[in-house]
Amino acid sequence: MIQLNHRDSRPIYEQVKDALGKLVVSGAVRQDEKLPSVREMATTLAINPNTIQRAYRELESEGYIYTIPGKGSYVSPQSYVSNIYKESLYRQLDKTAEELLSLGEPLSSMVDRLKKLSGKEMPHRDPSKKSDENL
Amino acid sequence: MIQLNHRDSRPIYEQVKDALGKLVVSGAVRQDEKLPSVREMATTLAINPNTIQRAYRELESEGYIYTIPGKGSYVSPQSYVSNIYKESLYRQLDKTAEELLSLGEPLSSMVDRLKKLSGKEMPHRDPSKKSDENL
DNA sequence: TCACTGTATTAACACATATAATACAGTTGA
DNA sequence: TCAACTGTATTATATGTGTTAATACAGTGA
Predict the structure, then answer these.
(1) Burial zone of A3 (CB within 10 Å; 0-12 exposed, 13-18 middle, 19+ buried)
(2) Does A17 share its domain with A35?
(3) What is the pLDDT of residues A109-135, one digit of tens each?
(4) CA gyration radius for chain A?
(5) What's the CATH number where A67 sits?
(6) Closest nucleotide to B68's CA, by C1' atom?
């Protein structure tokens, strides 16, 4: 389910948090699905239960999962999870763009950049047809 | 020149690095201008010279400043500094946008978002005139 | 030469991370 | 009811990074 990288300098609880967060956001684990218990996950990853607990606690405080004491931890409603995550990404986008603007970079450069990304990301339509250039 | 925040959880050497980096990138300190010596900066900020040295070393390894042993540290050529920093920001922009795309967010939403930012950032023209909507 | 500069090394301490060993209370099903 | 799960909390210990401290050495320039 999750793969740890012990060469990574980031704290383990953060790696667990990020990895699990991606599974939740991507929908790989579904709404209201039960996550492995703290102890089970700790055994699987061969790390301490306290470390897992910390990752779960932070994911819960950010809204990605919810916990029923005595029962387990579950994935929050998909639409909610998706929204809070996209919001955080948009805030990040704003921040970076604002800094580029303050350095005199024109908006057109950024937009061009995004368009190229989009073409690279979704090569579903025939690239010889230039029909989606204006979006 | 630099203001430290001891409540900030980030390491001091990182705060120094960021603050100095911004001064360099913004042009507040000019190309080939001499930076305060390691010991001088340490005295001013009331911290250890080793901590400053680390900040300087990393800034140098990333190209923002250059050092002449026995003389001092100096700001790298403005055009170069500006380029490597903008590049790093564009990479950040790409990364965020790619993730939003992978979550199904349309390119148009991101572009709209950037346009609103731009308007907020440069309120020089009369906002009642809607002449710059298409950039 | 003398007073600067950057650089390097070693030791000591504080703090965050992580492990370890327990303990307690809620839930569930036999 | 009882046993085996669950989440949660606490305390102690080990380790690594950040930071300070005290030196030392070599290059620069007046």
Answers:
(1) exposed
(2) yes
(3) 999 999 999 776 544 444 444 444 333
(4) 20
(5) 1.10.10.10
(6) C6
Residues of chain B contacting A85 with CB distance shorter than 8 Å? 103
Residue A41, both tokens? 């996950």
B122 neighbourhood in chain A, CB within 8 Å: 101
* Residue A3 in contact with partner chain B when CB distance is under 8 A: no
Shared domain check, A71 and A22 = yes
Each residue's pLDDT tens digit, B75-116: 999 999 999 999 999 999 999 999 999 999 999 999 999 999
| Helix A107-121 / helix A78-102 crossing angle, nearest 10 deg | 140
How far apart are the CA of B107 and the nearest CA of chain A, in angstroms?
7
Q: Cβ–Cβ of B93/A82 closer than 8 Å?
A: no
Phi, psi (degrees; rounded to nearest 5) at B53? -60, -40
Look at residue A71 and tell me if it is in a domain.
yes
Q: Which two tokens stand for residue B127?
A: 């906002």
**Residue A28 belongs to some domain of the structure:** yes
Tell me, yes or no, whether A68 and A84 share the same domain: no
A113 touches chain B (CB under 8 A): yes
